[in-house]
Write a structure and sequence with these properties.
The protein starts with a strand and ends in a 13-residue tail after the last helix. It has 19 helices and 9 strands. Keywords: Carbohydrate metabolism.
Amino acid sequence: MTRGYLAIVLHAHLPFVRRPEHEEFLEEDWFFEALTETYIPLIQFMEGWVRDGVPHAITLSISPPLLAMLDDPLLQGRYRRYLDRAIELSCKELDRTRDQTEFFRVASMYHSRLEHARELFADTRSYRLIDAFRQLKDAGGVELITCAGAHGFLPFMTSTPSSIRAQVQSATRLFEDLFGSPPPGMWLPECAYVPGIENFLKEAGIRYFILESHGVLNAVPRPAHGAFAPIYCPNGVAAFPRDAESSRQVWSSKEGYPGDYFYREFYRDIGFDLDYDYIKPYLSATGDRKMTGFKYHRITGPGDHKEAYQPEIARQRAADHAGNFMFNRERQVEYLAEQMGRPPIITAPYDAELFGHWWFEGPQWLDFLVRKTAYDQQSYQLISPAKYLDAFPKQQSAQAAASSWGADGNFAYWINETNDWIYPHLHKAAERMTQLARSYPQAEGLQGRALNQAARELILAQSSDWPFIMTAKTSVQFAEAQIKIHLNRFTRLYHQIIDNALEDAWIKELESVDTLFPHIDYRLYQ
C-alpha cells in the first residue's frame, strides 16, 4: 500500500557560453562534457523506462541558457566535432592499453559510451536533443519545468521588479515555444527566494517552485507538516521544501554515495597524466592541459594513491546504493505517515550535472532506483510536484521565508568581498532598462531590435553563475570578463538608443553572438 511519495527533481543548467569568433573555446567544453556525461546518459535511461514500460515520474528543470545551447546549430556542430575527436582518442587508448587488462576494460567502456552518444546525438536525434526531452514529456513520465532567465539571482532584483518579471516571463515564453505548453513549475535559480517572488510566478502561470527546507520550516504560520508537504503562498503558488536526509545521501561526497571508494575518481585524467606529445592533439587550442574525460582510476581513499577503476564493481555499488536509498525512503515514509496521519512527500532536488559528470555512476544509480522503486517495494511512489498537487489540492497556506540552497542557506555565496563590486553596475543597468522600456513603449524596426538586444545583454549579465564562480575561485577571470562584456554591450546600446545613433551592423553582430531568447520582448520591463 502506498504510504507516501518521492519527488525527484533534477535541475539542468549551464551558463550561456557561445563564442563563434573562436574556432575553439575552452569554456564551451563545459557544455560538451555535460552532454556526454550527463544529458545523453539521462536521456538513454529515461527512454529505457518508456521502452520497458517501467512506471516512473521524474521532474526535470532545463534552464533557458541550456535550452539555447541545445538548440544552437553552431554548438551542435562543435559538439559533433568534440565527439569525433573523443572517439579518435578512444581508439588510440584501446591500442595503448591493450596489454594492460584493467585499463583496457575501462578504455573499452569509454569507446562504447562515446559511440553510443554519437549515435543518439547525430543519427537518432539529428542533433536535436530538445526533441528527445519533448517526447519524454509527452510520454507522461517526465515533467519538464523551467528556470528564471539566465539563472539570475532573483532576491537581488527586488529594487527593480520589472527585472524579476522579465526573468520569469522570458523563460516561460521560451519554454512554451519549444515544448508546446506552459511549464507547470519553475526552479528558482539557487533556490533563492524572498517573499513576493511568488507574485511574479503567479502572473506567469507557474503553479509551484522548490525551496530549501528552512524556507518552508520558517514560514508563518509554522507549517503543521514541516518539510514533508508543500505550502501554498498567500497567492496560491505552492512551495515544495527540499528534504535534508535524501539530499545528504546523494550530495555529500563524504557521507553520501558519490564518495564510495569504488566509484570513479573525477580528478585523475589522462589530459594531465599522459605524455604531453601523445595527448597534445586533444588539449585546448592554447596547448594547455585539460580534462579529456578519460579517467582510469577509482577514488580508492583520501590520499594520492589511486587504484584502477573497475566498472563492473562500480555498477554493483550503484545498485547497492539505489537499494539503500530506497530502503531509507521506505522507512522515512512509513514513519512520517504514522506521525502525520496523511501521505508525506519527500522532495529530493539535485543539480542534474551531479549525475554523470561529478558522480560518474549517478545516472546508473538513478536507473536502478527508478526500477527498484517500481518493482521492489510498495511503501512509496514516484510523483511529480504538479501531479501531487492534482491528487492533494488541499495544503496549508503560509508565507515562506527568505532562503537559498547555498552555504548556510543564505545569500552570502553570491554577495561577498569577491563579487560585491558587480551589483551597483547591475542595479544601474536594470534601472536603465526599465527607463528605456517605458520611454519607447512601441518601438519597431532597428530601434525595437536594439531594445530587445539590450534586454538580452542585461539578462546575461545578471546570471548567478558569475558571482558564484568568483566566490568559488575557479574560472574567476572568465566570470569577471563575462559580466563586463555584457554590461559594456548593454551600456553602449543604451547610449545609442537614447542618442538615436543606432549602429545596425554592430547590433546585427550582437544578435548573432548572444542568441539567448530569440523572441524576447523588451516590453516585459515596462
